[in-house]
Design brief:
By secondary structure, this protein is mostly helical. Helices cover about 100% and strands about 0% of the residues. The protein has one domain.
Length: about 130
């Protein structure tokens, strides 16, 4: 009977070994579960960061769009102002042309008056000489 007791004792030891091995496997599964939980938490962090970045991109895109619209509006105003300036320049060119024509007429009149004065002065000099 002792032999059976020894066999049972060895079988009990083997069961104990198997139980210890199952405990180590269970502990390892617990470690793996904790790792998976940390990985899941990290994924959640990354998802939150992506959402934050997406919101930031949306804000930047909104600002770019607003700036583009404001720039387009301002360019339209500037083009209108340039058109007004061009019209003013055309008017000034017309006025300068009219002034130039007036100056030419005045210049011609001054020449004629100078010529008339020379002739008149020559006539007075001739009259003085003949009377004299």
């Amino acid at each position: 009977m002792e032999r059976y007791d020894e066999k049972f004792e060895r079988v009990d030891e083997r069961f104990d070994d198997v139980d210890r091995e199952f405990k180590r496997v269970d502990e390892r599964f617990d470690d793996v579960d904790r790792e998976f939980k940390r990985v899941d938490e990290r994924f959640d962090d990354v998802d939150r960061e992506f959402k934050r970045v997406d919101q930031r991109f949306d804000e930047v895109n909104r600002r770019i769009t607003e700036s583009k619209q404001d720039t387009d509006r301002r360019l339209g105003e500037v083009k209108g102002e340039i058109g007004e300036v061009k019209g003013g320049v055309r008017e000034v060119k017309g006025e300068v042309g009219a002034l130039r024509a007036g100056m030419e007429t005045l210049h011609a009149g001054i020449h004629q008056a100078t010529f008339a004065l020379w002739i008149g002065s020559a006539g007075v000099v001739v009259a003085i000489i003949f009377k004299g």
